[in-house]
Amino acid sequence: MSTQAKKRTKQQKRERASHFALTEKQLSTCPKCKKPILPHHVCKFCGFYKGLDVLYLDLKAERKKKKTKKKEDKAKNK
Ligand SMILES: [Zn+2]
Fold first, then answer.
1. pTM (2 decimals)?
2. Is residue 52 part of a domain?
3. Domain total in the chain
4. CA nearest to 52, candidates 60, 43, 62, 61
């Protein structure tokens, strides 16, 4: 393991750390459901982007319901 050539002073350390602060995320609102979302991102609540349904969340939820129903019916028939 190598040793450091020069000591880094408190001032140098603090000056470097002056750029470490986190910035608050700027949120925009979804035009469809009015919830806060990241700009230029698909809304994860309703699945819309630029007025288009991109994620088909409603369809997926319906399919999941059907699947669970089928499973339940199978379990009942056994
Ligand atoms: Zn939305």
1. 0.58
2. yes
3. 1
4. 43
